[in-house]
Amino acid sequence: MTIKTFTFNPFQENTYLLFDETNEAVIIDAGCIMDNEKQQLKAYIEEHNLTPKRVLNTHLHLDHQFGNKFLYNTFCISPEANEEDEFLLQNVVAQARSYGFIVNEEAQAIGRYIVDNEEIKFGNSTLKAIHVPGHSPGSIAFYEEKEGILISGDALFKGSIGRTDLPRGDYATLILSITKKLLPLPDSTVVYSGHGPTTTIGEEKQNNPYL
To answer: Among residues 58, 70, 191, 206, which is most buried (max CB within 10 A)?
Structure first.
Protein backbone atom coordinates (compact mmCIF):
# COMPACT_ATOMS: atom_id res chain seq x y z
CA MET A 1 0.00 0.00 0.00
CA THR A 2 1.14 3.51 -0.80
CA ILE A 3 0.37 6.38 1.56
CA LYS A 4 0.66 9.89 0.16
CA THR A 5 0.56 12.68 2.72
CA PHE A 6 -0.61 16.20 1.94
CA THR A 7 -0.37 18.97 4.52
CA PHE A 8 -3.21 21.42 4.01
CA ASN A 9 -4.76 24.61 5.43
CA PRO A 10 -3.35 26.94 8.09
CA PHE A 11 -3.81 24.27 10.78
CA GLN A 12 -1.21 22.15 8.93
CA GLU A 13 -3.57 19.21 8.81
CA ASN A 14 -2.45 15.92 7.30
CA THR A 15 -4.64 14.58 4.50
CA TYR A 16 -3.90 10.99 3.52
CA LEU A 17 -4.39 9.30 0.17
CA LEU A 18 -4.09 5.50 0.38
CA PHE A 19 -3.95 3.23 -2.66
CA ASP A 20 -2.73 -0.22 -3.61
CA GLU A 21 -1.70 -2.12 -6.73
CA THR A 22 -5.25 -1.97 -8.10
CA ASN A 23 -5.05 1.87 -8.13
CA GLU A 24 -8.24 2.04 -6.10
CA ALA A 25 -7.86 4.71 -3.42
CA VAL A 26 -9.38 6.20 -0.30
CA ILE A 27 -8.94 9.76 0.89
CA ILE A 28 -8.81 10.30 4.65
CA ASP A 29 -9.46 13.73 6.19
CA ALA A 30 -9.62 15.98 3.16
CA GLY A 31 -8.42 19.24 4.66
CA CYS A 32 -7.88 21.13 1.42
CA ILE A 33 -9.47 24.59 1.60
CA MET A 34 -7.52 26.73 -0.87
CA ASP A 35 -8.00 26.23 -4.61
CA ASN A 36 -4.33 25.32 -5.07
CA GLU A 37 -4.63 22.66 -2.37
CA LYS A 38 -7.70 21.14 -4.02
CA GLN A 39 -5.97 21.09 -7.38
CA GLN A 40 -2.85 19.54 -5.85
CA LEU A 41 -4.89 16.62 -4.56
CA LYS A 42 -6.84 16.24 -7.80
CA ALA A 43 -3.69 16.41 -9.93
CA TYR A 44 -1.97 13.69 -7.93
CA ILE A 45 -4.98 11.41 -8.33
CA GLU A 46 -5.10 12.02 -12.07
CA GLU A 47 -1.35 11.72 -12.65
CA HIS A 48 -1.25 8.35 -10.90
CA ASN A 49 -4.41 7.07 -12.61
CA LEU A 50 -6.11 6.45 -9.28
CA THR A 51 -9.77 5.67 -8.79
CA PRO A 52 -11.08 7.18 -5.55
CA LYS A 53 -13.58 4.83 -3.97
CA ARG A 54 -14.26 6.33 -0.55
CA VAL A 55 -13.81 9.58 1.36
CA LEU A 56 -13.27 8.86 5.05
CA ASN A 57 -13.07 11.10 8.09
CA THR A 58 -11.33 10.32 11.36
CA HIS A 59 -13.50 13.10 12.79
CA LEU A 60 -15.36 16.16 11.59
CA HIS A 61 -13.56 19.17 12.99
CA LEU A 62 -13.32 21.90 10.37
CA ASP A 63 -9.71 21.40 9.40
CA HIS A 64 -10.28 17.73 8.60
CA GLN A 65 -13.34 18.11 6.37
CA PHE A 66 -12.85 21.35 4.43
CA GLY A 67 -12.33 19.39 1.19
CA ASN A 68 -15.29 17.00 1.46
CA LYS A 69 -17.58 19.12 -0.70
CA PHE A 70 -14.90 19.53 -3.35
CA LEU A 71 -14.39 15.76 -3.49
CA TYR A 72 -18.13 15.19 -3.69
CA ASN A 73 -18.44 17.68 -6.54
CA THR A 74 -15.40 16.24 -8.33
CA PHE A 75 -15.81 12.49 -7.85
CA CYS A 76 -19.44 12.15 -6.66
CA ILE A 77 -18.32 10.41 -3.47
CA SER A 78 -20.06 11.28 -0.22
CA PRO A 79 -17.91 11.42 2.91
CA GLU A 80 -18.14 8.81 5.63
CA ALA A 81 -17.73 9.40 9.36
CA ASN A 82 -19.01 8.26 12.71
CA GLU A 83 -22.53 9.45 13.50
CA GLU A 84 -21.47 10.90 16.85
CA ASP A 85 -19.55 13.64 15.04
CA GLU A 86 -22.33 14.70 12.69
CA PHE A 87 -23.27 17.67 14.91
CA LEU A 88 -19.93 19.26 13.97
CA LEU A 89 -21.22 19.85 10.43
CA GLN A 90 -23.77 22.38 11.65
CA ASN A 91 -23.15 26.05 10.80
CA VAL A 92 -19.77 25.41 9.21
CA VAL A 93 -19.73 28.82 7.48
CA ALA A 94 -20.05 30.57 10.86
CA GLN A 95 -17.58 28.20 12.49
CA ALA A 96 -15.02 28.88 9.80
CA ARG A 97 -15.49 32.64 10.10
CA SER A 98 -14.73 32.44 13.82
CA TYR A 99 -11.31 30.99 12.90
CA GLY A 100 -10.71 33.55 10.16
CA PHE A 101 -11.56 31.27 7.21
CA ILE A 102 -13.83 32.22 4.35
CA VAL A 103 -16.12 29.31 3.48
CA ASN A 104 -19.05 30.03 1.20
CA GLU A 105 -20.90 26.71 1.41
CA GLU A 106 -22.13 24.64 4.31
CA ALA A 107 -20.49 21.28 4.94
CA GLN A 108 -21.03 18.29 2.70
CA ALA A 109 -23.53 15.91 4.27
CA ILE A 110 -22.37 12.51 5.47
CA GLY A 111 -23.39 9.77 3.07
CA ARG A 112 -22.67 6.83 5.32
CA TYR A 113 -21.83 6.22 8.97
CA ILE A 114 -18.73 4.34 10.07
CA VAL A 115 -19.09 2.09 13.10
CA ASP A 116 -16.56 0.55 15.48
CA ASN A 117 -14.78 -2.55 14.13
CA GLU A 118 -16.14 -2.04 10.62
CA GLU A 119 -14.02 -3.30 7.74
CA ILE A 120 -13.53 -0.73 5.00
CA LYS A 121 -12.46 -2.32 1.74
CA PHE A 122 -10.92 -0.85 -1.41
CA GLY A 123 -8.93 -2.68 -4.04
CA ASN A 124 -7.15 -5.54 -2.29
CA SER A 125 -6.90 -3.61 0.96
CA THR A 126 -8.93 -3.51 4.16
CA LEU A 127 -8.92 -0.91 6.90
CA LYS A 128 -10.42 -1.61 10.31
CA ALA A 129 -12.30 1.26 11.95
CA ILE A 130 -11.50 1.76 15.64
CA HIS A 131 -13.74 4.11 17.62
CA VAL A 132 -11.48 6.30 19.80
CA PRO A 133 -13.70 9.01 21.35
CA GLY A 134 -12.26 11.80 23.48
CA HIS A 135 -10.92 14.40 21.07
CA SER A 136 -14.40 14.32 19.60
CA PRO A 137 -17.20 11.87 20.41
CA GLY A 138 -17.06 10.21 17.01
CA SER A 139 -13.31 10.02 16.46
CA ILE A 140 -12.24 6.99 14.41
CA ALA A 141 -8.78 5.55 13.78
CA PHE A 142 -8.12 3.36 10.73
CA TYR A 143 -5.85 0.33 11.13
CA GLU A 144 -4.29 -1.84 8.42
CA GLU A 145 -2.89 -4.92 10.13
CA LYS A 146 -0.87 -6.43 7.27
CA GLU A 147 0.93 -3.17 6.54
CA GLY A 148 1.19 -2.24 10.22
CA ILE A 149 -0.20 1.28 9.84
CA LEU A 150 -2.63 3.34 11.87
CA ILE A 151 -4.28 6.57 10.74
CA SER A 152 -4.98 8.06 14.16
CA GLY A 153 -6.62 11.38 13.36
CA ASP A 154 -6.21 13.75 16.30
CA ALA A 155 -6.36 11.06 18.98
CA LEU A 156 -2.63 10.34 19.16
CA PHE A 157 0.37 12.41 18.06
CA LYS A 158 4.12 12.02 18.30
CA GLY A 159 4.74 12.91 21.95
CA SER A 160 1.23 14.23 22.52
CA ILE A 161 -2.51 13.58 22.35
CA GLY A 162 -5.48 15.44 20.93
CA ARG A 163 -6.95 18.45 22.68
CA THR A 164 -10.14 17.83 24.63
CA ASP A 165 -11.43 21.36 25.24
CA LEU A 166 -13.56 21.45 22.08
CA PRO A 167 -17.31 20.62 22.10
CA ARG A 168 -17.98 17.18 23.58
CA GLY A 169 -14.31 16.43 24.03
CA ASP A 170 -13.29 14.60 27.20
CA TYR A 171 -9.78 13.99 28.52
CA ALA A 172 -10.49 10.84 30.54
CA THR A 173 -12.34 9.32 27.59
CA LEU A 174 -9.45 10.05 25.24
CA ILE A 175 -6.86 8.51 27.55
CA LEU A 176 -9.04 5.40 27.92
CA SER A 177 -9.48 5.17 24.15
CA ILE A 178 -5.74 5.34 23.54
CA THR A 179 -4.69 2.95 26.31
CA LYS A 180 -7.39 0.35 25.65
CA LYS A 181 -7.61 0.44 21.85
CA LEU A 182 -4.41 1.85 20.36
CA LEU A 183 -1.53 0.94 22.67
CA PRO A 184 -2.28 -2.81 22.49
CA LEU A 185 -1.44 -2.71 18.77
CA PRO A 186 2.05 -4.02 17.84
CA ASP A 187 4.88 -1.70 18.85
CA SER A 188 6.04 -1.55 15.23
CA THR A 189 2.75 -0.05 14.06
CA VAL A 190 3.46 3.24 12.25
CA VAL A 191 1.11 6.00 13.38
CA TYR A 192 0.04 8.61 10.84
CA SER A 193 -1.42 11.46 12.86
CA GLY A 194 -3.77 14.27 11.93
CA HIS A 195 -0.98 16.80 12.40
CA GLY A 196 2.78 16.53 12.57
CA PRO A 197 5.20 13.66 11.87
CA THR A 198 4.70 9.92 12.02
CA THR A 199 5.57 7.88 15.08
CA THR A 200 5.11 4.30 16.26
CA ILE A 201 3.01 2.71 18.95
CA GLY A 202 6.18 1.51 20.67
CA GLU A 203 7.70 4.98 20.73
CA GLU A 204 4.56 6.49 22.24
CA LYS A 205 4.31 3.78 24.90
CA GLN A 206 7.84 4.63 25.98
CA ASN A 207 8.04 8.38 25.49
CA ASN A 208 4.62 10.01 25.39
CA PRO A 209 4.31 12.04 28.61
CA TYR A 210 0.50 11.85 28.54
CA LEU A 211 0.48 8.07 28.59
So the answer is: 58
The predicted pLDDT at position 106 comes to 87
SS3 60: coil
Residue 92 predicted with pLDDT over 90: no
Over residues 173-183, the pLDDT tens digits come to 999 999 999 99
Domain boundaries, the chain: 2-207
Sheet holding 125-131, edge to edge: 119-122, 125-131, 140-144, 149-153, 190-193, 199-200
* Residue 190 and residue 203 in contact, taking contact as beta carbons nearer than 8 Å: no
Q: Is 63 exposed, middle or buried (0-12, 13-18, 19+ CB in 10 A)?
A: buried
Question: What CA–CA distances, in Å, run from 6 to 38, 56, 92, 193?
Answer: 10, 15, 22, 12
In whole angstroms, what separates CA 179 from the centre of its chain?
19
